[in-house]
Amino acid sequence: MRKLFVSEPGTIEMKEIELISKPGEGEIKIKVLMGGICGSDMSVYKGKIPYAEYPLTPGHEVIGEVIEAGANARFKVGDKVASYPNTYCGKCENCLRGMTNICVEKKSFGVTIDGLFAEEIIIDSEFAVGVPADIDEKKAVLMEPLSVCVHAIGKADLKNSQKIAVMGCGTEGMLCIAILSYLGMDITAIDINEDKLAIAKEFDKGITTLVPGQADGRNFDVVIEAAGAKKAIEQAFEIVKPGGKMITLGLTNEDISYPCFKVVRSEITIQGSIIYTKDDFDKALEYLKDEDFNIKPIISEVVPFEEFRTAYDHALSGKMVKVLMDFK
């Protein structure tokens, strides 16, 4: 069986290992069918996540078919499932409040524990989500990143008349645009990459697209910051309206200048958003099941698993939105 292995930042290889053992009582063995390379996978590869634990197997966005199931597993052989790649304890204060996304015992596949870019994996069935057999695999593998955006947009308390800015047109930014376009919102996409802005237009020709300098002096009811870059975050403070809301979805290790005077005097609401809960997965699946929900602009290319170096190189190029790996 083959799996990917990151021994240290900048070093990734494919290893042939012995077939993994049988699943435990509550576990499932999954034959991986499709995987998506995420921004965090690239950050782990580049050594930009300080809490990443090396060596490890990368990857967390996968779908597959259950090929073995423990006696108490939540799924049976033949079921199609997607990964729910952030664990939770179910017992801490946050979990008991329904906020499993900020569980104090949370572990993340492909970052703090071994990930899922392997031909076969064994996971606790609690951390898998069922996928209807008739959903295309290239759609289904987007459940996890789409859930991130469902969670973030759910915190915005959107109104139909509002003007929404999405800063950053990577995977998360584009998936936010996909949802907002589906909901019929007034959207402005902001990015330094004009090729990405052109892709954003594919969701709806009515979307306004701007490079950052063109956004100066404009104001928006809601700003979704998905770039995770110092300049973008600081600009988000400047373009949110008085009484507006800023959803911070992107991550950076850089120190950010906090405009206290403006935030207080203008009553700006700053809302952090991290990953998702199972409810967000349910909503993401609803979107993906609807033929009118457009995700075609998201998928840049599908690369065979054995060509993982090409897949990573293309994902790292900054020219792609989402690169998928086909494990079949």
From TrEMBL:
Required co-factors: Zn(2+)
Record carries keyword Glycosyltransferase: no
InterPro entries with a match to the protein in the record: ADH-like_C (IPR013149), ADH-like_N (IPR013154), ADH_Zn_CS (IPR002328), ER (IPR020843), GroES-like_sf (IPR011032), NAD(P)-bd_dom_sf (IPR036291), Zn_alcohol_dh (IPR050129)
Pfam families in UniProt: ADH_N (PF08240), ADH_zinc_N (PF00107)
Alphabetical keyword list: Metal-binding, Oxidoreductase, Zinc
GO terms, molecular function: oxidoreductase activity; zinc ion binding
Domain named Enoyl reductase (ER): residues: 10-325
Family of the protein in this entry: Belongs to the zinc-containing alcohol dehydrogenase family.
Identification of the protein by name: L-iditol 2-dehydrogenase
Annotated organism of origin: Dethiosulfatibacter aminovorans DSM 17477
